[in-house]
Amino acid sequence: MVTIGNHRSLVEGQRSARAQRSDAAYQAFAILRTAFTVAPIIFGLDKFTNVLVQWDHYLAPVLSRPLPVTPHQAMYAVGVIEVVAGLIVALHPRLGALVVAVWLGGIIVNLLLIPGFYDVALRDFGLLLAAAALQRLASRYDPRPTFWPLRRRD
């Protein structure tokens, strides 16, 4: 009979992964990670097509007037940022959740500058809180430090 030295640790690792997947906190992490990956990518791509909504209406005139581009063109930049944010959440949720939370904070400020969009700002505040929850959960399930790509090696 041949004995494999790492067999026991492999079996324990599989049990640990199964136990982790059945853990409610891990399930919440997985749900939030998926949502904050998919939603920004979809909404970001829609900035180029306006299939879901006419996004230009969501840019406060006080912010768009000084820009050297039209609000429609500004939405292209917003779309790129949102797609990148979604990809960062997918690849490094601990950092990506922080990026999304800061981005949502900016969106909220923008919406508060537009009369009649306070309900959308309130909804986005709820999303900001969910992004903050994802960041906290990611501190357990994403082993890399938040800013690991920027961390100096000593």
UniProtKB/TrEMBL annotation:
<protein>
    <submittedName>
        <fullName>DoxX family membrane protein</fullName>
    </submittedName>
</protein>
<keyword id="KW-0812">Transmembrane</keyword>
<feature type="transmembrane region" description="Helical">
    <location>
        <begin position="98"/>
        <end position="118"/>
    </location>
</feature>
<keyword id="KW-1133">Transmembrane helix</keyword>
<keyword id="KW-0472">Membrane</keyword>
<feature type="transmembrane region" description="Helical">
    <location>
        <begin position="73"/>
        <end position="91"/>
    </location>
</feature>
<feature type="transmembrane region" description="Helical">
    <location>
        <begin position="24"/>
        <end position="45"/>
    </location>
</feature>
